[in-house]
Known about the structure:
The complex is a heterodimer of chains A (620) and B (85). Chain A is of the alpha/beta class and 620 residues long. Chain A contains 28 helices and twelve strands.
Amino acid sequence: MTNLPLIALVGNPNAGKSALFNALTGARQKLGNYPGVTVERKAGRFSLSDGRPIELVDLPGTYSLNPTSPDEQVTRDVILGRQAGERLPDALVVVVDASNLDNHLRFALELIALGLPTIVALNMVDLATRDGLELDAHILSRELGVPVISTVAVRKRGLDHLRGELESMLDGSAGKVRASAEQRDFEGLRREARRIARAAIVRETPSRRLTAAVDRVALHPVAGLILLLALLFIMFQAVYAWSAAPIAMIEGFVASASDAVTAALPDGLLRSFLVDGVLNGVGSVIVFLPQILILFFFILMLEATGYMVRAAFLMDGLMAKVGLSGRAFIPLLSSFACAVPGIMATRTIADPKDRLTTILIAPLMTCSARLPVYAVIIGAFIPARTVALGIGLQGLVLFCLYISGIVGAMLAALVLRRTVTKGASGGFLMEMPKYQWPRPQDILLGLWQRAVIFLKRAGTIIFTSTVILWVLLSFPKAPEDSGISQVNYSVAGRVANGLNLVLAPIGFNRDISLALIPAMAAREVAVSALATVYSLDADEDEAKLERSLGDRLKDNWPLPTALAFLAWFVFAPQCISTIAVTRRETNGWKWPLFMIGYLFILAYVAAGLTYWTATALGLG
Amino acid sequence: MRLTDLPLRQPAYVDLIDWNALSASDGQRLREFGLCEGASVEALHHGGLLGRGPIACKVGRMTIAMRRNHAAAITVRTGPSDSDL
């Protein structure tokens, strides 16, 4: 715990708080959690003009000090000095959207009344001007009784001014929270906010609004849906089309590292460990970093531009039909990147049954950890040819896998809402922010944070699982001339041969059974595990060693097996982090165990149906 | 007229909100969005292919989305505003 002065950024959702946070702290950010709750604590540091360091914490956006969800509760508790693991802020920066003064000033008044040193950042003044609104910050400051600074966080305008104000404020008296009892009633605050907003608005001319124009298309029942599907389709095509060159680079690097180790070390256990275990195993997963970043790029863009809420609006009809809140669409869409933040994002859903259903189906959204698995199988078994109009067959198959996950999730929600999570139907009440072009630095920062998380996973969970698997595959050593392959003789091979009794009916072979066990830790491990298995097997045959994992899979698997393997991963709940976060969010083991059970059954049935159908069609 | 029946892009004012038809938290959220008797409101988009989807409307300077059951609890009238709330 540091003793730096703490400043809290607080304000309504969509006031541009995070952009201001990024603009002030740059890359010096630290993501963590508040103890006891899973609400993310986002903190960073910056320096005042005299070099004094300041800690800045970005609190979850909320509309009032009257919380309706767990993350809004954190905001209130931090500001009132009641949050465990957080000291009372020395000052507040209240972020207010300049074009939505009436509304945001009401919350600002509520915050100012608390008595902490407060500065109001009148943010996004450029967008307000675009909408024909001219404001006087001096009048606003006089009426509110606190300094008001015009900022455009995305263009870094007004930041020096803000830092200067904070400096003189921190030199003043220390803050203390007044009793919240003396707060005015809601209606009184609203009237006061409206009066001040009226006073501060110098000129208000109706102007053509960009947002309204775009929304005519984006929210149109037919055109909007076509646009949404087109965006998703482009996203999945790009995952393949843009990643070829960087992937080749990483592959080249791993290959030359393997060659270097092979040349430098004598044949033996250490060389096998480094080449088969570390480089082939972990390398086969790191290769997917470009594709994962492309996927995250699209998701970050959809969020930052304001399109995500529009997508939720379009999908609300469907969500209502399966008994979910339209709001559930946003956690579900972020689950395409990773189910863990997706499940954490369900905290914005007020109804408990609604929220539980969303948590239970979130793992069905195709997360980026499945991408390595899908990519390696598609790359090996689906020919890279164009179907029509520049649409690649590989991208099309990937798109279908994503759709299968979505359809599966919707059907699961339909059944769950009629059985285990029966209750009142969820609602949909959301603010639709204005469209805006995100700052490239914010997107890059988001991608950088994702890349670090992915590489950390590769270095820890994936590395450890791969190494353990290598050990279990390498011992005991098969006797020379016994005719038994090393894999079959090893501990892991024997376990896999046992598991394969259950999995053989759905077309899985021993190697798949072997890969599925360590893949419980994380789905990508399936790929590194297969790479290790075939790498060890290939040691016996020098000619095979030169071949890529895809080629080796193609040699060993019939097509129906590969398709069944894909179908399995659409459903299988193979991720320790997801199970852990579900346990934390549902306060017990009941729901995570239920989730594991129903998803494994679905995975088994889906893989089986795929295998039997493909075999019957003669694809084998 | 209910907000569900208000033609698109016709400026109107909130006449009455049946708070009892809304859950406590939904009611609070609507208040926080600036919905109150006298607020200016304009329906912008109806979602859903069969007209059963949510409604996007402008309340003051803010655009919000709500389901039809919420909109049905809001009575609106067209014409000039009679008070300066």
